[in-house]
Amino acid sequence: MIVCGADGSGPAPWRVAVVGVGPRGLGVLERTAARLAQHRVGRRVELYAIDLVEPGAGRIWRADQSSCLLMNTPAGEVTMFSGPPDRGLARAGAGPSLAQWWRATRPGDGGGEVAYAPRYLSGRYLRFVLDAVESGLPDNVVLHRVRGCVVAARRAGCAGGWELILDDGRTVEADRVVLTPGHPRPELDDEQRALSQFAGSRPHLQYDRSPKLHSGHHDGLSKVVDVRSGLRLLDPGLPPANDPKSRGWSLLW
């Protein structure tokens, strides 16, 4: 059965929505675009890139971060393209790694295969990748960038599609939905909420939203909480004895 568009003029577009477009969601879009370029289909295709912060970079790799924050992977080992660059323009299936893009766009900036790029620079690279993917789409494929938060999904239509509901009331209809939400931001439990309120009432304390408290230290000069949780590490730092404003400080890697 051929499903016609709303105006009855022809086959309805095939719609794919990616919810959460940081690196993983961007990778889905890049591979989808590359396959659509290799295997042309006889109908219109609509791709939806939905992200609360920024389609492409997402929240974790947003480009407004401090330059002091670095990636933990060498730039030469990072690429969002599924194939190496060729003599053509960057596009889905062929494009530079982060290191190659870094050297080409910021010569003399210290970029190299073994260099660790600032996180904000990675965000700019992800923007570049999404722009390259969109500019190289076939004529029958269009990309919609949607900034918003999907709060619900429900079945829609007789063909088994989906209706995505955003927090501002907008809706997106799709035949297929890919969920790549990335790092969650869990709500505080009762114990964490009490600790957060305790720290909020004391200007020299700051509560860190890590899931487990590992140990506590009292050294007479400062009160430091040592928090460890997987790849995330909060280590205690000892402030100078003559700096009363530094009580309770920590270093975060």
TrEMBL record:
SUPFAM superfamilies: FAD/NAD(P)-binding domain. Residues 17-183 form the FAD-dependent urate hydroxylase HpyO/Asp monooxygenase CreE-like FAD/NAD(P)-binding domain. It comes from the Bacteria. InterPro entries: FAD/NAD-bd_sf (IPR036188), HpyO/CreE_NAD-binding (IPR038732), L-asp_N-monooxygenase_NS-form (IPR052189). PANTHER family: BLR0577 PROTEIN. This is FAD/NAD(P)-binding protein. It comes from Pseudonocardia yunnanensis.
